[in-house]
Specification:
Strand order of the largest sheet of chain A: 2-8-7-6-5
Largest interface: A-B, 87 and 87 residues
Oligomer: homodimer
Distance between the termini of chain A: 47 Å
Radius of gyration of chain A: 20 Å
CATH superfamily of the largest domain in chain A: Type I PLP-dependent aspartate aminotransferase-like (Major domain)
Helix content of chain A: 25-40%
CATH topology of the largest domain in chain A: Aspartate Aminotransferase, domain 2
C-alpha cells in the first residue's frame, strides 16, 4: 500500500495465474498448455523475421494477421480484432462493450479473471449459478443486463454449450453484447464465429495459446460485426498503439495458415483426453465430460486439496481451486501420453 | 458508433501513431526509429528461444528481465516494472499512480498520448504552457496537483531538462508522483534513474524501442521505489498476466547485456544529429537544441505543412503536428547519413 496509489488500484483484487515453475523435470499439467510444439512453419516464420527490421515499429493495425484470421473464419478483416493474448482482448472488451448501467452476467464457476476485470473497469456483475451438473443454462441469462460473458467450453469445468444453446443465449439478449470466450473451442466444440454475420450483439474471443501451441508468443483475437470491433479498436488506440510485435504477427500469420498441423495436433490432444479420462475413471474418479484440453475430475474418497498436494510432492503439477462447489475437483491439462501416465501412476498410489 | 459501446468508449479520443507505410523505398524519418539494427546478440538470443518452448507461457513476472534492468541501473528487481512497450507502462501508470482527485500537470506541447490516457482512465488534467523557447520550467509545476508527467527530453521538441531541474520538480512535488518519461534519454541526457533511491515519488519510464533499436519487439519498463512498482503490478495483474512473450523477454535481456553495441550506436545517432542540425541550419532552419534522436525545426520562410507535403511528394516522411505554437515545425528523425542527405537535398529544393 502506498499513499501514491489511486483509490482504484488500492481496491483491486488482481488475478493469480497458474504457477510457472522455474525448476525442470516437472510434469506440468496446471496451465493448459499444449503438449505439442508450435508448427515448424511458425518457428520458420519467426526466425525469418528476426533481423534488422526489428528496429522498426510493427504495423499498428496488424493488417496481415487480421486478414489471415478473417480468411480462416470466412469473415471480413473489419470483423477481426487482435491483441496481446486473449487476456488483453478480454480486458478491452470489458471496457468497451460490457461497462454499462446494468450488471453483467457470468457463471458463478468460470474463468476467475472476469471479476478482476470488473474491478479494474468499475463494471457491476451478477454471478449466475451453474446447474447441479455444473452446466450453463441459457434460460438463466434472460432478463435485462449489461452484457453476458462465458467461456465455451467453460473453464475450469470443460463443459461445452452446443451451438444451438449459444444461439439461444444470443436470442435471449438482443440488447446486450454476448461474449463467447472460446479459448478451448478447438478441442471439441463448434465455434460461434459462424454466427457473427447473423448477430450484431455477438463477440467471439479466441487465443493462439492453446490449440496453436503458442502460449509463449501472446496472441489473441476477437470476431464480431464491425461496430463492435471498432469499439475495441478505440480502446486499444487509447491504450497502446502497437500491442503485437513483429515476431508475434509473423508467427501468428503462419499459425493460421498451417491448417494441417493444427488439425493433427488438435486431434492428438482430443485422443489424449479420452485416454486420460478412461484412466482417471478406472481409478474411481468422476470426470466431467470435457470439450477442452483439460479435464475436471474429483474422487469420491479423496479431497481435491490433498490430491493436488500429493501430486505436487511427486513433481506433478495440476490446478486446484479453493472455491465453493469445486473445491474437491482437480483441473488436469491433457499432457503427452508419458505425462498422463505419470500422473495416473502417482494418483493410483495416492488413492490406494 | 454502436448502441453496444460503453459511454466511456464513445467519449474516447484515440491516439494516432505516426504512419507505418507498407510501401518500400521511402526515407522514413517520421516515427523516431533507430537507423541502426538491433545488436546481433539480441537477434541470436531470440533465434535461440524460437523453439518448442513457445508452447509454454512466459514467466508472468519476467524475472530475468527485471534482474537485467535492475543491474544496469544499480537498482533492485523490486524497483523494476516491465510492459509491452512503454505505452503500456504509461497506461498502467495513469491508472495506478496518476488518477487522483486533483488534476495532473503536463506540458501543453508534449507526447500527445497523455490526454488520451486521461480520457481512458477518467483522469483530470491541466496543461502547463512551455516557455517562449519551448522549454519546461519546473517552477510552473509548483502547487497542489494529482501528479506530474513529462518526457525528458520532451517530445516533440527534443529539449532536455537537466538532472538538477528534474530534482527541483521532485522537491516541488513531495506529495505527488512525478513521472519522467525517458523514451529518448539515452541520446543526450542523464537519466533520473539515479534519483530513484532518494525519491519515493519518482517514477522513470524507458523503452527499448529507440536507443536499443527494438521498436518491433515491444518492451518498455519503469523504475521506482517498490511501493510504486507494486501499484503498477496490481494493475498489470488485473489486466494481463503475461504482457511480455518469451521472445520479447529473451531479446530484451540480451539487449540490456550488450552495453558496447548500445554505446556505439547511441554515439553514432548523436553524431548524426549534429550533422543533420548543421545541414538544416545551413538551409536557414531554426533547429531547437535536441537531446533526442530527432530534431524539431522550422524555416522562417516556409510553412511546416507545405514542407512536410513537399517532402512526402519526394518519398521522404517526417512528422508534422497541426497544433498551435508548433504548426510550423517539422519533427525529423535522425536517420542514416544517406537518409539525412536525401532529406536535406529535397528540403534545399523546396526552400529554393
Amino acid at each position: 500500500m502506498s499513499r501514491f496509489w489511486s483509490d482504484l488500484v488500492a481496491a483491486l483484487t488482481p488475478y493469480t495465474p497458474g504457477e510457472q515453475p522455474r525448476v525442470e523435470q516437472l510434469v506440468k499439467l496446471n496451465t493448459n498448455e499444449n503438449p505439442y510444439p508450435p508448427s515448424p512453419a511458425v518457428l520458420a516464420a519467426i526466425r525469418a523475421d528476426t533481423g534488422d527490421g526489428l528496429r522498426l515499429y510493427p504495423d499498428p493495425e496488424a493488417g496481415a494477421l487480421k486478414t489471415a484470421i478473417a480468411q480462416r473464419y470466412a469473415l471480413d478483416a473489419a470483423q477481426v480484432f487482435v491483441g496481446n493474448g486473449s487476456d488483453e482482448v478480454l480486458a478491452h472488451t470489458f471496457c468497451a462493450l460490457l461497462k454499462h448501467a446494468r450488471p453483467i452476467l457470468f457463471p458463478d464457476v468460470t474463468y476467475s479473471f472476469y471479476p478482476t476485470y470488473c474491478g479494474l473497469y468499475g463494471v457491476d456483475y451478477r454471478p449466475v449459478p451453474l446447474d447441479a451438473a455444473l452446466r450453463i443454462d441459457p434460460e438463466d441469462y434472460a432478463g435485462e443486463n449489461g452484457g453476458v460473458i462465458f467461456p465455451n467450453p467453460n473453464a475450469p469445468t470443460g463443459r461445452l454449450l452446443p451451438l444451438e444453446a449459444v444461439r439461444r443465449m444470443l436470442d435471449l439478449n438482443p440488447d446486450s453484447v454476448v461474449v463467447v470466450d472460446e479459448a478451448y473451442i478447438d478441442f471439441g466444440g463448434e465455434s460461434a464465429a459462424a454466427l457473427v454475420p447473423e448477430y450484431p450483439n455477438l463477440l467471439v474471443i479466441q487465443t493462439l495459446s492453446k490449440s496453436r501451441s503458442l502460449a509463449g508468443l501472446r496472441v489473441g483475437f476477437a470476431l464480431g460485426q464491425a461496430p463492435l470491433i471498432e469499439g475495441l479498436e478505440r480502446v486499444k488506440n487509447s491504450f497502446n498503439s502497437y500491442p503485437l510485435g513483429r515476431l508475434a504477427i509473423a508467427g501468428a500469420v503462419a499459425a493460421m495458415a498451417d491448417e494441417a498441423y493444427f488439425e493433427r495436433t488438435r486431434q492428438a490432444v482430443i485422443a489424449g483426453r479420452e485416454r486420460l479420462t478412461t484412466g482417471l475413471e478406472s481409478l474411481g474418479f468422476e470426470v466431467l465430460p470435457s470439450a477442452a484440453n483439460f479435464v475436471f475430475a474429483r474422487h469420491p474418497a479423496h479431497r481435491g486439496e490433498s490430491l493436488a498436494a500429493g501430486l505436487r510432492a511427486q513433481r506433478v503439477l495440476v490446478r486446484h481451486f479453493r472455491q465453493p462447489r469445486i473445491e474437491d475437483y482437480l483441473r488436469i491439462t491433457v499432457g503427452t501420453d508419458a505425462q498422463c501416465e505419470r500422473l495416473l501412476e502417482v494418483l493410483e498410489a495416492l488413492c490406494a
